[in-house]
Automatic annotation (TrEMBL):
Keywords: Cell membrane, Ion channel, Ion transport, Membrane, Transmembrane, Transmembrane helix, Transport. This is Large-conductance mechanosensitive channel. It comes from Lachnoclostridium phytofermentans (strain ATCC 700394 / DSM 18823 / ISDg) (Clostridium phytofermentans). It is found in: Cell membrane; Membrane. GO terms for cellular component: plasma membrane. NCBIfam families: mscL (TIGR00220). Belongs to the MscL family. InterPro entries: MS_channel, MSC/AndL, MscL_channel. It is a multi-pass membrane protein.
Length: 147
């Protein structure tokens, strides 16, 4: 039992789990803000066109009450939350791509293929260590590179 509790404690205190917990708490708080926005601001504005509280719109069919106004309000909540999450992910991807561009440094090749045995060898080698073939050294002029 002690081993189980120790493993659980190590798992729960890892950075990823703590970050997830903070994200869920902030997400639920943000959901309250979005719900308040739709219930207290957007629904009354839409209600101006329907001449009643938008959340109270309902349809009675065969004794069943369908509260379609509350459903549309929940749908608006979802769209707003999805849009905000999309913007956050897009922003994070942009920030991460800036870091990736900085990390990409032009790396000069350190190996080449032997034209005879096709094994990888040091770029400065004049003889292949695998097949012992004499390799041609190619002199590259800077003028050729500029062209």
């Amino acid at each position: 039992m002690k081993k189980f509790l120790k493993e659980f404690r190590e798992f729960a205190l890892k950075g990823n789990v703590m970050n997830l917990a903070v994200g869920v708490i902030i997400g639920s708080a943000f959901q309250g803000i979005v719900t308040s926005l739709t219930d207290n601001i957007l629904s009354p504005i839409i209600g101006l066109f329907t001449r009643q509280n938008f959340d109270s719109l309902q349809l009675n069919i065969f004794g069943i009450t369908l509260r379609y106004g509350a459903f549309i309000t929940a749908l608006i909540n979802f769209v707003i939350m999805a849009f905000v999450v999309f913007l956050l992910v897009k922003g994070m991807n942009r920030i991460l791509s800036f870091d990736d561009k900085r990390k990409k440094v032009e790396v000069k090749p350190t190996e080449k293929d032997c034209p005879y045995c096709m094994t990888k060898i040091n770029i400065n080698a004049s003889r292949c260590p695998h097949c012992t073939s004499q390799l041609e050294t190619i002199a590259i002029n800077e003028e050729d590179i500029a062209r």
